[in-house]
Amino acid sequence: MFRMSKTLDVLTLFHKPSISASVRVQNLLKQASAQASQTATEDQATDHSPQNDTVTREPFELEVTEAAPTPDQLNSIFDYLGGGVAGELVKGAASQSDALRKVKEDGNAFTRPVLVDWARGQAVIGDKESEILKVLKAEGK
């Protein structure tokens, strides 16, 4: 008998290595991903206390990209964040349609870092650690 393995949720970090905030977020996510995927030791298996405070979710796949999001991805990110964030997400954008146009013309107009949890419909702009930790601790839908 075999069991089908569950596919991991994908968290995407839109990243720019030259931005210190982006590097901080990447390091936090790498640490959280490693903690989420650790297997319990025999001692931990009998200890029911929380083993780490950063992550309480199932293991996830971390995708780090320096590319700008596709138009479909950008629309999803807008849906996750709600209205009024066009200028925060894309430099100089006045609206969602303006943001889409600007990113198509110049991918560097897209603000980084941005963390997106596609499976749970969540996104965080910048290095707001408390919001990132909420995404990492989120219960499954």
From TrEMBL:
Top-level taxon of origin: Eukaryota
InterPro entries from the UniProt entry: Arsenate_reductase-like (IPR006660), Fmp46 (IPR012882), Thioredoxin-like_sf (IPR036249)
Localization annotation: Mitochondrion
Family according to the record: Belongs to the FMP46 family.
Gene Ontology cellular-component annotations: mitochondrion
Protein name: Thioredoxin-like protein
Record field: compositional bias (Low complexity): 34-43
Pfam families on file: DUF1687
Keyword Ion transport attributed: no
Organism: Vermiconidia calcicola
Ranges where the record places region Disordered: 34-55
Keywords: Mitochondrion, Oxidoreductase, Transit peptide
